[in-house]
Automatic annotation (TrEMBL):
Annotated InterPro entries: Prolamin-like
Keywords (A to Z) from UniProt: Signal
Segments forming a coiled coil: none
Leader sequence residues: 1-27
Species this protein is from: Cardamine amara subsp. amara
Protein's name in the database: Prolamin-like domain-containing protein
Listed Pfam families: Prolamin_like
Highest taxon in the source lineage: Eukaryota
């Protein structure tokens, strides 16, 4: 039980650290962000569009967050899988920079839940 809590704390600290570093780098570049503190303009991938599709399904972001930290994908519902499967593969490295293996794992799991999901290379 102690190792699970250590891993959880470590993951949360890493996530927070990555967020603060990203914000610090953005502030040093002195660019005017579209949303203060979030995404600087001119990114090749429109992160707002990527995330907004997940936010369009109620509870989808929460389900994905839970599966990231638990490693269990069975709680992700079909509607969320359908939206996640339609995301452009260029969004994934920018949406999940700390775990590049997560999107393919979730996509494989979603392929079992949502048949004939479109593939984006």
């Amino acid at each position: 039980m102690g190792s699970k809590s250590f891993v959880s704390i470590f993951l949360m600290a890493s996530l927070c650290g990555a967020i603060f570093v990203t914000q610090g780098v953005a502030a040093q570049m002195q660019m005017q962000p579209t949303f203060p503190g979030l995404f600087p303009p001119g990114l090749p991938v429109d992160l707002i569009k990527c995330w907004s599709s997940l936010f369009s399904v109620e509870g989808c972001v929460l389900e994905i967050s839970k599966s990231i930290f638990s490693g269990k994908f069975e709680n992700v519902e079909a509607a969320c899988c359908k939206v996640f499967s339609t995301l452009d593969a260029n969004c994934w490295p920018h949406m999940f920079p700390l775990n590049p293996f997560f999107p393919p794992l979730l996509k494989d799991n979603c392929a079992c839940i949502v048949p004939k999901a479109p593939t984006h290379n």
